[in-house]
Amino acid sequence: VSPPLAQTIAAKTVKDLLAKFVPEARSGTPKLDENEMKRIAEAFTKGRYLGEAHLDLAQYLRDCWKAYTPTKYKAPCVAVVQSSGFGKSRMVRELAIEAQKSALNMKVLYMCARVHESTGFPKATSELRGWLFQEGSEVEDIASRLKTIYVYANKHWADVQKEWLKLFTEKAADTSVKAKLSDETDTLEGDTSTEKNPNGRIVVLVIDEARSLLTEKPDKKNDFRMLRNALRSVNKDIGHRGCIFGVLIDTNSRISDLAPPLLLDPSSRLFDGELASFAPVVLAETMDAHWDQYCEENPAGEDEEMKEDIQDQERAKIAMYKRIVTGDASQAWHALCRMGRPMWYSTCPNPADREDVINLAANKLLLGIPPSQNAYNKDTMFGVASMLCRLGVRPHSTSALASRATADFMAILAYVNFKREGYVTSYASDPVLALGAMKVWYELKYGLAKYILPQLKNLLLDEALDTGGVGEIGEMVARILLLLAMDTCVMGDKSFSQCYHTIGQFVPVQDFLDVLQGNKERPIYCKGMYNAEDKRPELNKWCSKWDGWYMGFTHFVQLQLEPNEDTLWFLLGRQAAGIFPRNQYGADLLIPMFKKRSNSRPVGGETTRGEQEGHEVLMMLIQVKNRFPVDGGFSRAATEKLCPWFVFGKNSDGNSSAGKSTDEIGRDPKPLSSTDVRDTIRIYMNVRGRKSDGKFIYATTMKDNLKPKKKGNASEEDPVFTICLRLLNRVTYPFLSDGVASMLSNMVESQYDPLGLVEGDLDYRDEDEKRNKNVSSYAKLSLTATRDKLLQNARKALAYAPGDKEEE
User: Fold this and answer.
1) Which residues have a Cβ under 8 Å from the Cβ of 452 and sit 6 or more positions away?
2) pLDDT tens digits, residue range 671-694?
3) 69 torsion bin: left (phi>0), alpha (psi -120 to 50), beta (else)
4) Which residues constitute the domain of residue 747?
5) Counted domains in the chain
6) Is the previous residue joined to 122 through a cis bond, with omega within 30 degrees of 0?
7) Do 258 and 381 belong together in one domain?
8) 340-355 pLDDT, tens per residue?
9) What torsion, rounded to 10 degrees, do the Cα atoms 493, 495, 501, 503 define?
10) Where does 211-334 show beta strands of DSSP type E?
11) For the region Disordered, what residue ranges are annotated (predicted)?
């Protein structure tokens, strides 16, 4: 291959790569109105800064400068990456403020390289950017201007930071700083030192919205590559006395090391291998910053000295979760806004701003566009980020979606791997973002069925999401069903815009169970699926014990450790439900519920295990199966495998109680394995099958639910109940719309086997034809391409091998 052809191919590769991961400026991104911009500006400049991320950055830059040598590293440059709302720009401003008043021996020049309107702040410094990256500039030209920046800073070291600090907030500073740098004529004196001064003067050049530097230019290097090479060049001239160090800030993690092929950038080549890049700064320290501050300033316990110990600090925080859960609704909302990324509370600190902060979160999931018909498009990935956020699903670390989810769709970046080819991201518990996701779900009447769920299915088929395998698709669908049931409890038949005042509040457990099961009386079956209607009085008594109990969740979070009582309060405080680890026995999902001290005992019920004085916390355990055509192993899965002693497996006595919680911070949390099975709501879900009603109550006895070789204090013949939902259809789940029910069934079946993909799509086609039966212009494809013919053809093409069906 000739060099010109190789260069052309390489250039196209880079262009395609950038087009894939670094979308071009979006002309449709809305411009913030004056009031919104004022609110963001006040939060940026006047709000109290929490934490020491800026000092950590200063130390990291100093360490990188000490380690830097052009024979090992590509450039004296680091990236700061994280999704929107974590305070990346605010962190470097705090660094600039610290540099002005302390002995860091460091100055910060800020530049915002944004080339289009966005929801961000500070505003673009177009004059300064235009000066540094002038049209037609070569690497040598940019290096010369970087040298000018270093010379100017050294000459005015005592007061230059005060001047440069205005670049964060004053538009006029962009023009004045550019003019002074343009007029600078002094040159850099020669460096005679032979060893690097570890405490030398560092000028930090911060370029915010740095993805704009990646825009490719015809027949020349882009600004990103020229800046990197210019930093290498200028620091050779500066020598050992100090340096000018680049800091690139963006939500796109690809900015951390989007290195071009060596053919296009020989300066990055080393004879014995490729040069290294400094590890990016993944800003995570500010997560929950306002909540941590709230816990410190409003201690839930009386012993202040105990908070010196980290473990006791965590126990104190759990006590605070308990306080807000069992307190009034306004207190819970005030605390909820402080959780997650700091942007929510910083911009909307007033409890009356509930609607504004939820709208902000919804817009952020759609590239800053308010939810509307036009917002659900290819650029916004049809709003699917709202689904990933609420389900607690993350992209595979090596998929293209991993970096884009962080850059554009509010996923939280946790780690960039050593070779910069994998990005560990997640939608960790961010309650306000989950509320914004609710708005994305419901603002458009058919948004879920028409846009969001089809896009989720596409991501599943593309294997872009880390679901844990084929069998986990059913569990994901179960999470959607549970969220829809919970949303129905909160919203009823109202539109989302009518429910801002109730969103994020707790609801009675009985209301949730009524929505999930329907208002009709469910049949009762015992082992062998024989009628057990004689157990109706005991069932009614067991159901009545949940009067006065409350619950509420807006999203699911992945649990890594075995849950205990603290876990339940943590989830309740963040309005979340839990996903068990993949190696967990028995249950797949956990939903906490609580009873306030002020509530009376259950109406018509006796005081039994788990019903003592004080705040109580218990749980629902859910097991999900994806079995078809028969539900093999149902009996054991719906009984023994949903017993707390089986699910949690340790510290169990088989039939003791979870008991009441404690307000004592120092006491260890109680293990959930000791919870009595009668104090647990067990739900068994099978998300396959579409024809009939799959709701019933499965009645067994304590004898069937005790730990082997253990005897309980109660009669072994006492009844124990499990709520069973064994089919996925509108009859079983009447709160589903036709379109959502069809899409969920299609999603499960298509992922299960190739023929299921065909059958699921045909079912979706049939549902679509029913919805449009009165539309004269609708083309009914089943008239010409019949279901039977298409299925027969698919079976032939798939060449199904013979075998026995699974027996129960």
Assistant:
1) 376, 382, 383, 384, 386, 387, 440, 441
2) 888 899 999 999 999 887 667 778
3) beta
4) 738-798
5) 4
6) yes
7) no
8) 999 999 988 887 788 9
9) 80
10) 242-250, 269-270, 273-274, 281-282
11) 654-674
